[in-house]
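In response to reviewer comment 3 from the previous cycle, which asked for concrete evidence that the modeling workflow produces usable outputs, we include below a single protein chain processed end to end. The sequence was submitted unchanged, and the resulting structure tokens are shown without manual editing.
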Amino acid sequence: MSSQSRTRALPAAQLVWEALDYPCAERLHPVLLSTAERLATHGELFLTPEVRTALANISRPTLERRMRQWSSPKAKRKARAPYQRLKEAGVLVKPAELLREEQLASLNPLQPHRDLERLLAQGPSLPCTRDA
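The workflow returned the following structure tokens.
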């Protein structure tokens, strides 16, 4: 496929992208041709055989590269750590590293663990018996 025919197919691909509410290339690629044909059926798009072939043969990576140049009205989401979202919501959250450090600092190696003391105070457990 020549780059000229691929270039002619890009406006059609962009129209399909907009009609489907700006999906990513991975979601757009499998339905690109069928949606373009459906738009052509309803008179929203004119498909020549050359453009139809170009849409059928465009690769997902090429589509992704071209889509980066198109502007989407959807807001971009900033990646944030999960605990930052909770912190902004007013929930007191500490990262796991800080929690582990606090837990380790609270353990005294010279004193037995409280749960171990409780289990020892209960005495030996009764053996399980099965009724035959």
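The CA atoms of residues 56 and 64 lie 15 Å apart. We consider this sufficient to address the reviewer's concern, and the full set will be provided in the supplementary archive.
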